[in-house]
Amino acid sequence: MDVLIREIHKSDRDMWLEMYRQLFPDNSDDALIAEMDRIFMSGKRSAYVALIDDVPVGFAEYALRDYANGCNSQPVPFLEGIWIDADYRGQGIAKALVSYLEQKARMAGFKEFGSDVELSNYPSQLMHERLGFEQTEKVIFYRKVWD
């Protein structure tokens, strides 16, 4: 099975939106499109699609963060999100996407690659560990809202 990985472009908006809906089913299309637009406009973020026979089977988002919990360097390349179609999971698609992004980061001179997972997302935690990520810390975020 040959996997082609390439950057997602504005012309891929509909394809990406279909996949984005799967990763974030509780978000509205307007919210997802707004996030996609932020990524397209950013100089520090990008997204990549995995294709098998021209069929999109997954994607990953890459960012260059000023800081990432558990990482020692600044700035640090960061896996912002990854999604693989359920029919293609366990076939090395996530590994191919992450390897592609790692190579991108290494070619830019970086020595580490960060990511995060919600505490309740055990399948993603397992995937990260299988891909060679190591857990560095657990953080609970807080906020205070006022009028």
Put the structure in a nutshell.
The chain has 147 residues and is of the alpha+beta class. Helices cover 33% and strands 23% of the residues. The model has no long low-confidence stretch (mean pLDDT 94).
Low-confidence stretches: none
Distance between the termini: 55 Å
| The number of domains | 1
Shape: globular
Q: Would you give the CATH topology?
A: Aminopeptidase
Fraction of residues in H or I helices = 25-40%
Q: Can you summarize the main beta sheet?
A: 5 strands, mixed
- Order of SSEs, N→C? EHHEEEHEH
What does this structure look like?
This protein is α+β, with helices and mostly antiparallel strands and 147 residues long. The chain has one domain: Aminopeptidase. 33% of the residues lie in helices and 23% in strands. It has 4 helices and 5 strands. The protein has helices at residues 13-23, 29-41, 93-107, 122-130, and strands at residues 4-7, 45-52, 55-65, 76-84, 114-115. A 5-stranded mixed beta sheet has the order 1-2-3-4-5, sandwiched between helices. The longest helix has 15 residues, at 93-107. It is globular. The model has no long low-confidence stretch (mean pLDDT 94).
